[in-house]
């Protein structure tokens, strides 16, 4: 079943709600209102039937609900979403019809996207670790109590301790490391 047929089946009898969800003005009762496509005053008539039929005297055109939504500038994906049609199944069916080279390219793009997300996650984790290390270094450098300073130093890595030796309280740190 094509995506168009799926949308028409899902929205059958529900076109007023689908169109309102898309922001298309549809009257509650059968009445003449301004056309959502051409904007003509009192030219548009919507029939509350299964296909969402409408007619505009300004456009001089009959439309079903799907065509009305498309003429109002809505994408088929938006219409499908408002009609409650899930596009993932359709995308997988269409992917099976794509040439092998295109499928390979799509898989490569997915892999690159996942890899970039992994890199961003690791960068966030690294930033958190760096912030924690800087806090510990600050506490050690500013600790007035020898025991507290010793406890803090034990929790630091050797590289951090060496870094502290080059700054500030080198004598205390050398004493504690000895």
TrEMBL record:
Residue stretches making up the DNA primase/helicase Gp4 N-terminal Bacteriophage T7-like domain: 30-66
Pfam families: Zn_Ribbon_Prim
GO molecular function: helicase activity; zinc ion binding
Coiled coil: none
Top-rank taxon, per record: Bacteria
InterPro entries with a match to the protein in the record: Phage_T7_Gp4_N
Protein name per its UniProtKB record: Primase-helicase zinc-binding domain-containing protein
Organism: Kluyvera ascorbata
